[in-house]
Hints:
It contains 1 helix and 17 strands. The protein is mostly beta strands.
Amino acid sequence: DALFNAGPVLKVAKGGTGVATLTANNVILGNGTSAPTFVAPSTSGNVLTSNGTTWTSAAAGGASGLVLLSTVTASSSATVDIETTFNSTYDAYMLVVTDYRPAAGTPLHLFLKIGGTYLTADYQYHSSGLDAGSASYAALAATAAAQIVVSGGGNISPDANYPAHFNFFISGVASTTTQKEISWVGRQIGGPSDRLISLSGAGAHKGASTAALTGVRFQQSAGNITSGSFRLYGLANS
């Protein structure tokens, strides 16, 4: 009994673990001749996921290959920041915005967090809106702006009386050699006659910085974002 209940820790090479205690409820990972490492359960509903090298605790992926990473809910918010989690785990991300309502019919602005800071210069963008009531085309564009304008101006002004919905697509966030880009599609009821508006656009930061992107911020040009759900998904690499 003394052999099993007392004495020095048995090394891995001798058939032991190399540690005196095993963390409760953690998964044990082999570590060669060194003491094992551990994976904590983390968030409820997570599963053990391979990243090609080791195992991590991550949100379960659905059949579509989308992995929900975080949700931010707006409630009379001056800004909505999406920062959990952009990194090298996924090659591409999708940000789904549902039931977005501005406090007033002011343009929706978007900022990118690059190198740890939300930048306020050197953006290029082109955003368009197609009105179901006509074949006319309305757009906004800039090559040196303080922000990316997602919707605003002409017949693509957001309407506080109706929610809008968007899907944003982002890739290459962890790269430190390329400038960061984002594109989107969406829809809303608005315009001068409360008609369906089809929205789309793309933007990029074209300044000197090519640091990693770690966040996306939404903000009205004036007033708050009354409501909306902002869900960030990682697109499974395989």
